[in-house]
């Protein structure tokens, strides 16, 4: 991995992160392909939308189809026919969110599959083994995602366990993969800073912030977003995990984060919420039944160039699969183009005004 800072505007920055399969231009949004597929999208459609990298998930691919099956296919890139970089989450969040009966020990986590109830174990060494078999470009250290709310005592114990697991991940990492650590600490500022210090001492290639957007009020999440980047190395990529809405990304870019992922663009598309330059559009609303104009006149995506709000409304009301696909194509293009505009604003030293204009003009529901 090679990481270079090209331009800064306050704490916001444009960087390049060069990996074997391509160079990422940051700030970058990673579409989520949890089980090896970004929902409703083909690899070519992702490229057309401007995706530089996608995220897949260790927990889900371990359970189905199994990392051995993926390895037999030649690795995840060949298995899903994606020749650009892939980041794999370690599965820590999924063990937390999908397995309420999990048992945590110093060695790892014993949990029951959300698919069939079978019992499994993943610890830091096993997480590295699975990700090595998958062959992703960026891998994440196995961590405990602290639930919200949690006591100070539990959160301290949890972050120390995350550090212990991070050491094991380092010892079992592959030289052909880039390993990021995950800062925990819940909603406690001193614990967040302590977690960052412990992980920085271990000298990872990149640093992520996890355990946010897990139920805490948005103002608390934004507070964490604002102070934690200054505790992380300037010369390494900073990744904010699982966030978020455009207004959250703007907050995080201003603070100095470089990488983002979230299911919001694909999930909201499936439920009929479309993000446009004029605000959110609820495409199932009856007012769009005879609206024969494009969804977004400023958008260059396939959906906006070829179809009207009336047709998208019809597809949604009829439950047609094509409606989900066209909605998803638009929302992902919107997000990826949004990141492109952010990069341009930083390069031109106008990020703060861009953020202000965006929040005042472009993100009201209607």
Task: Walk me through the structure.
The protein has helices at 43-49, 58-63, 67-72, 76-80, 92-98, 124-134, 152-171, 189-200, 218-227, 246-255, 264-270, 302-306, 309-318, 321-347, 351-361; strands at residues 2-9, 12-19, 22-26, 28-30, 54-57, 86-89, 103-104, 109-112, 119-122, 138-140, 178-183, 206-209, 238-240, 259-261, 273-276, 279-282. The chain is globular. The longest helix is centred in the C-terminal third of the chain and has 27 residues, at 321-347. The termini are far apart. Helix 6 crosses helix 7 (152-171) and helix 10 packs antiparallel against helix 15. It folds into 2 domains: 2-262, TIM Barrel, CATH 3.20.20.105; 269-361, no CATH class. 48% of the residues are buried. The chain has 366 residues and is α/β, with parallel strands linked by helices. An 8-stranded parallel beta sheet has the order 4-14-13-12-11-10-6-5. Strands 1-2-3 form a 3-stranded antiparallel beta sheet. Strands 7-8-9 form a 3-stranded antiparallel beta sheet.
Question: What labels describe this entry?
Answer:
alpha/beta; 42% helix; eight-stranded parallel sheet; 15 helices; 366 residues; TIM Barrel
In short:
With about 375 residues, the chain is of the alpha/beta class. About 40% of the residues lie in helices and about 20% in strands.
Major sheet: 8 strands, parallel
Within the largest sheet, what's the order of strands? 4-14-13-12-11-10-6-5
Low-confidence stretches: none
Q: How many strands appear in the DSSP assignment?
A: 16
């Amino acid at each position: 991995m090679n990481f270079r800072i090209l331009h800064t505007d306050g704490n916001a920055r444009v960087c390049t992160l060069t990996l074997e399969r391509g160079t990422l231009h940051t700030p970058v949004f990673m579409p989520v392909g949890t089980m090896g597929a970004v929902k409703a999208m083909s690899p070519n459609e992702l490229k057309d939308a401007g995706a530089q990298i996608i995220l897949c998930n260790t927990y889900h691919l371990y359970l189905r189809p199994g990392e051995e099956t993926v390895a037999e296919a030649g690795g995840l890139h060949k298995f899903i026919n994606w020749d650009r970089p892939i980041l794999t989450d370690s599965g820590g969040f999924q063990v937390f969110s999908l397995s309420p009966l999990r048992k945590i020990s110093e060695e790892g986590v014993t949990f029951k599959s959300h698919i069939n109830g079978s019992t499994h174990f993943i610890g830091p060494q096993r997480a590295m083994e699975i990700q090595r078999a998958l062959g992703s470009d960026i891998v994440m250290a196995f961590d405990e995602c602290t639930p919200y709310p949690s006591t100070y005592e539990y959160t301290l114990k949890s972050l120390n366990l995350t550090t212990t697991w991070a050491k094991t991940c380092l010892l079992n990492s592959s030289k052909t993969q880039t390993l990021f650590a995950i800062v925990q600490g819940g909603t406690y500022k001193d614990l967040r800073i302590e977690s960052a210090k412990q992980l920085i001492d271990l000298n990872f290639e990149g640093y992520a912030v996890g355990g946010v957007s897990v139920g805490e009020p948005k103002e608390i999440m934004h507070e964490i977003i604002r102070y934690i980047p200054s505790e992380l190395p300037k010369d390494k990529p900073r990744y904010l995990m699982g966030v978020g809405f455009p207004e959250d990304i703007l907050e995080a870019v201003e603070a100095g984060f470089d990488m983002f992922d979230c299911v919001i663009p694909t999930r909201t598309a499936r439920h009929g919420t479309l993000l446009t330059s004029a605000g959110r559009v609820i495409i199932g609303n009856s007012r769009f039944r005879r609206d024969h104009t494009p969804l977004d006149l400023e958008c260059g995506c396939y959906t906006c160039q070829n179809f009207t709000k009336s047709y998208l409304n019809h597809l949604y009301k009829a439950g047609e699969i094509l409606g989900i696909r066209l909605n998803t194509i638009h929302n992902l293009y919107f997000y990826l183009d949004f990141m492109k505009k952010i990069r341009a604003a930083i390069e031109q030293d106008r990020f703060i005004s861009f953020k202000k204009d965006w929040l005042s003009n472009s993100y009201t529901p209607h």
